[in-house]
Amino acid sequence: MGEDKKFSIEEAFKKIDKTIQEMEAEDVTLEQSFSLYKEGMELIEQCSKEIDIVEKKVIELSESGETHDFT
Amino acid sequence: MQNNTYTVAQVNNYISGMFKDDLLLDNISIKGEVGTCSYTSVGHIYFSIKDKDSQINAVMWAGKRNSGLKFKLETGMQIVARGRVEVYVRDGKYQLIANTIEQDGVGNIYEEFEKLKGKLEAMGMFDKECKQPIPQHIKTLGVVTASTGAAVRDIINVSKRRNPGIQIVLYPAIVQGKDAPASIIRGINMLEEYGVDTIIVGRGGGSMEDLWCFNDEALAHTIFNCSIPVISAVGHETDFTIADFVADLRAATPSVAAEQAVSLVMDDIRRMEEQKRRITGLLVNKLAIYRSNLSGYKNRVRGLSPQSKINEQRNRLSSMEERLSHRMDGKLSNVKRLLELKAQKLHGLSPLNKLGGGYVYASANGGKALKSAKEVSLGDNVNLNLTDGEIVVKVEEIKEY
Fold first, then answer.
1. How large a percentage of chain B has pLDDT more than 90?
2. Considering only CA atoms, which of B140, B126, B56 is closest in space to residue B98?
3. CA B222, CA B229: separation in Å to the nearest integer?
4. Which residues in chain B have Cβ-Cβ distances shorter than 8 Å to A44?
5. Closest-approach residue (CA) in chain B for A50
6. CB distance A51–B269 less than 8 Å?
7. Is this model's pTM higher than 0.80 or not?
8. Whole-number pLDDT of residue A1
9. Which of B44-58, B143-157, B188-202, B363-377 bottoms out in mean pLDDT, i.e. has the lowest?
10. Chain-centroid distance, C-alpha B190
């Protein structure tokens, strides 16, 4: 399975946690710190895009595979 | 009459007529276990029904199978067969011509359930290792259930409450009766093809017979083979079906299934904010540490520069100067004070002070202080100084001591 096949928010959360852990290490350099920060913030940005709070309609899948709104 | 002789056919036809006239034999239900059982090439089923004391032959014509038999008849099954008992004149045998065959009793269904459960379990289909994890955050939820009823409403309400942005794709399935398994299987396959993140398969509560379609073997295989995680939600907490065992997760009810499938979006937002705060805090800290290190280094380097050496020496010099001048001032004022003191003393000792009280300052020969009687001669002028004036006198007598 491809790793970046699909963005998954829980994977992203895990990655961010890991990034935080790495940043917490004593011996991390400033340069590493910056690149980790950048990486982390990009992931957070993606997460926030992923968290969609716009309400959606339920759709119904018909026998033929067509969809229409479910009421 | 007793000496009459009949042909075999006559006797068998006579008996056949007797059977036909019998109201009980014309429409009778017989229960027992299936003994032998064979399907012919054209679809007739020849079988026997037996119990521990007896057995009877039976047949179901192919034409009756559609309406009268909903399962594959197999040896060992407990059944109730309904039909009429007829004589087969050619062989002189009687048999049940079955119109319907049903499996006998709940106890027996349960046995069947246990048998299938054991079989699938042995195949490893219930193994924990085969369970797919349910994703924590999903965008699209597939639901296979009836489009009416409490189950679909519960799933939609709970899901929307937890995450208004969730896209629910419903496959309206038949969830009861003999067409249900095929319909549910089709729903799972279609949602798999459509591409959802998690599938909930289930229905609301009902009798054991109502839920029976979820014990279908083909459905079990479909759920097992589904590449998308499947949550089963059949009936109430106490209902267990084969689908529950084979699903990646069993939810007690449809509402619970929705809770397990759909994450609370507020949790995600909170988690994200927390991560953002931490990651920013860490960078800010790192920068602060570096900045403070830098200013430390800067001070140290500055301390080592020639300019600073010069400044330092200049400072030392000026401080020495200051100290010196301070010292000097001290010295001078000391001397001044001493001088004053001495002046006062001197003043006190001044001969002029002593003039008066009979003492005078005598000078002669052009102002020289007169120290000896020998310095003057008779007739010389001697000046006598007093505090308030001068007297000039003439020497008239000299007496030496």
1. 50
2. B56
3. 12
4. 272, 275-276, 279
5. B139
6. yes
7. no
8. 37
9. B363-377
10. 32
